[in-house]
Design brief:
With about 260 residues, the protein is mainly alpha-helical. It is about 85% helix and about 0% strand. It has nine helices and no strands. Helix 3 packs antiparallel against helix 4, helix 4 packs across helix 7 and helix 6 packs across helix 8. The radius of gyration is 22 Å and the shape is globular.
Length: about 260
């Protein structure tokens, strides 16, 4: 292998990616540890503000996404359900899809763009503007005042919104099945209640909670690592969305393997 050879360049690229991955994991671990240490001194007014900003203000978008996802799931699965004469199982199939996959995944992706980008941009603005360093200078812990309330608020918001979004998605699924496939509500909810268990609901809530934690930690780490001027804020917001979405897909794969095996 000589200097400048394709093999050496490829090896350098792989090494660079490996170092970036280690740095990223280290930054997330540091943010998580500092956040846990800041929880006992958590600023409650910032927590209330973050709950309104990240949770309450996101409800309309989450509800609209859930309604559309529910209708799309029924329209798409209805084609195959009718082809194989299994209309009676539509309630189970569409409910399973929303609880286990479409609900948590869509909510995670939508919220990574809304609350993840916003959190990263706000923290990056304060980091670039020197406000976070200023807090340290007067003896205050930025993790107790700014970070811990935001992480807790995003986690609680995701868990709370998962309940509403699942309910809205299933209600719109039943309405779409009635209007497009003439499937009675009693039949839809009959198979839904008979073939699904509380564990199926728990699986979706667990996924949503893990996705919320990933969004909060990734966006916080990206925001606090911002350096430079105004362009750094834009880069932090974009990077938070991309990295959060990538983390959600990786975690979804891992959790599906683990939870499906455990609940089988």
């Amino acid at each position: 292998m000589t200097a400048g050879s394709p093999e050496l360049n490829a090896l350098r690229s792989v090494g660079g990616l490996g170092l970036d991955a280690v740095r990223g994991i280290g930054a997330l671990a540091l943010v998580a540890a500092r956040t846990v240490l800041g929880l006992p001194r958590l600023e409650r007014r910032e927590l209330t503000r973050a709950l309104v900003q990240f949770g309450y203000d996101s409800l309309p978008l989450a509800m609209a996404t859930a309604a559309l996802a529910g209708v799309i799931v029924v329209l798409q699965s209805g084609l195959y359900i009718q082809r194989f004469g299994a209309r009676a199982f539509l309630g189970w199939a569409s409910g399973y899809g929303v609880l286990w996959e479409f609900g948590p995944l869509l909510l995670g992706l939508i919220m990574s763009a809304r609350i993840g980008a916003r959190n990263a941009a706000e923290l990056a603005t304060m980091q670039v503007g020197g406000q976070i360093e200023g807090l340290r200078g007067i003896g205050l812990d930025p993790f107790a005042i700014l970070v811990a309330p935001r992480v807790v608020a995003m986690e609680l918001s995701m868990l709370g919104m998962s309940t509403f979004t699942f309910m809205v998605a299933i209600l719109f699924e039943s309405a779409a099945a009635l209007l497009t496939l003439d499937l009675p509500l009693r039949t839809f909810f009959g198979t839904f209640a008979h073939m699904l268990s509380p564990l199926d609901i728990a699986g979706g809530v667990v996924k949503t909670g893990v996705f919320g934690l990933a969004i909060s930690l990734v966006s916080t780490a990206v925001g606090l690592s911002a350096r430079g001027g105004a362009q750094a804020v834009g880069r932090a917001a974009a990077s938070a969305v991309v990295q959060s979405c990538a983390a959600i897909f990786v975690l979804d794969f891992i959790l599906t393997l683990l939870l499906a095996g455990w609940m089988a």
